[in-house]
Design brief:
This protein is mainly alpha-helical. The chain contains four helices and no strands. Helix 1 runs antiparallel to helix 2 and helix 2 runs antiparallel to helix 3. It is globular, with a radius of gyration of 13 Å. 16% of the residues are buried.
């Protein structure tokens, strides 16, 4: 079933972000979480979402 992206809610994007995290795809999870933030009106909720799904390109550590 194809859905119109305009009809998706923050909860829809967060569900998808959780699925991508479980699948080992942290960058896609981060992008989906950012879409959820865009659909959130409460600043505290938005901050919580961002804290739960940080940008993996800025949080990863290099190892030799």
């Amino acid at each position: 079933m194809i859905r119109d992206p305009a009809d998706l809610t923050a909860a829809d994007y967060l569900d998808s972000a959780r699925e991508m995290t479980a699948a080992g795809r942290p960058y896609l999870a981060h992008l989906l979480a950012e879409e959820a933030v865009q659909r959130t009106t409460d600043p505290a909720t938005a901050a919580g979402i961002r804290a739960a799904y940080p940008d993996p390109t800025t949080t990863r550590t290099e190892s030799n």
